[in-house]
Write a structure and sequence with these properties.
NAD(+) binds at residues 14, 20-21, 65-66, 93, 163. InterPro entries: Enoyl-ACP_Rdtase_NADH (IPR014358), NAD(P)-bd_dom_sf (IPR036291), SDR_fam (IPR002347). The structure is a single chain. The chain is an alpha/beta fold. It has one domain (9-248): NAD(P)-binding Rossmann-like Domain (Rossmann fold). It contains seven helices and seven strands; from the N terminus they run E-H-E-H-E-H-E-H-E-H-E-H-H-E. The protein has helices spanning 21-31, 43-53, 69-83, 110-131, 157-177, 203-213, 222-233, and strands spanning 9-13, 35-40, 61-63, 86-91, 135-145, 182-189, 244-247. Strands 3-2-1-4-5-6-7 form a seven-stranded parallel beta sheet, sandwiched between helices. Helix 1 (21-31) packs across helix 7, helix 3 runs parallel beside helix 4 (110-131) and helix 4 packs parallel to helix 5. The two termini are 32 Å apart.
């Protein structure tokens, strides 16, 4: 099937490198005909993204720091001025201090807890608020979660709590934004060797354990996650909202 997202304009937030889940989403969406707008956090991120995306798409790269309401508002104002209305937003952004991703939960600092919640969970609310005036009816917002939102994954700690908050945000946002034809969902992606995962202590063991629990003994790929995100951005998914969809090859079954 081709052209599933023809004539659709979608913002993808969180591309760090070619192993990023956000990159897998962007690539699959472009294959289906979408015009993808990329956001980046800082100048050094822009340099990497330009090499990845290509200088010919420089006008599609918009600076946005999700820890700043002003930056988010400015980014979506610029997007609106350049591209008009949007068909969707992919929010693939999360952060916690590496020091908070190890040891025991009681070791987590107040500041570290607040930072993880701010960047990983609250930012979805802030992004939806800024994007709302631009989103068409229908439109779609998709964010990225992980099984650590439900289970106590070793060393995931404060990020697991942030992902649980993120999934709750999805339900409440879906309820409130649905009246304007905007659906909000999360993808619970399997463990992937991304830049974010390498910040977790013992991430090698986590990846091996996840692979061993897949139903076919193979790792999920960013392309597979991107395929599900593409479906959720398409008009085929207009009946799906407030949900968490697993793309982990069955790891959550066991």
């Amino acid at each position: 099937m081709e052209g599933l997202l023809a004539n659709k304009t979608i913002v993808v937030m969180g591309v760090a490198n070619r192993r990023s889940i956000a990159w897998g989403c962007a690539q699959e969406m472009e294959k289906q005909g979408a015009t993808v707008i990329y956001t980046y956090n800082r100048e050094r991120t822009l340099k990497r993204m330009t090499k990845l995306v290509g200088e010919e798409k420089a006008d599609r790269m918009i600076q946005c720091d999700v820890a700043s309401d002003e930056s988010i508002q400015r980014a979506f104002q610029q997007i609106g001025e350049q591209f008009g209305q949007l068909d969707g937003v992919v929010h693939s952004v999360a952060f916690a201090n590496p020091a908070e991703l190890g040891g025991e939960m009681t070791d987590v600092s107040r500041e570290g807890y607040a930072l993880a919640q701010d960047v990983s969970a609250y930012s979805l609310i802030a992004v939806c608020r800024a994007a709302a005036p631009l989103l068409k009816n229908p439109a779609s917002v998709v964010t990225m979660s992980y099984f650590g939102a439900e289970r106590a994954i070793p060393n995931y700690n404060v990020m697991g709590v942030a992902k649980a908050a993120l999934e709750a945000n999805v339900r409440y946002l879906a309820r409130d934004m649905g009246k304007n034809g905007v659906r909000v969902n999360a993808i619970s992606a399997g463990a992937l060797k991304t830049l974010a995962v390498t910040g977790i202590q013992g991430h090698g063991e986590l990846l091996a354990m996840s692979k061993a629990r897949t139903v076919d003994g193979k790792d999920v790929t960013i392309e597979e996650v991107g395929g599900t995100a593409t479906f959720l951005m398409s008009d085929l998914s207009t009946g799906v909202t407030g949900d968490v969809i697993y793309v982990d090859k069955g790891v959550h079954l066991i």
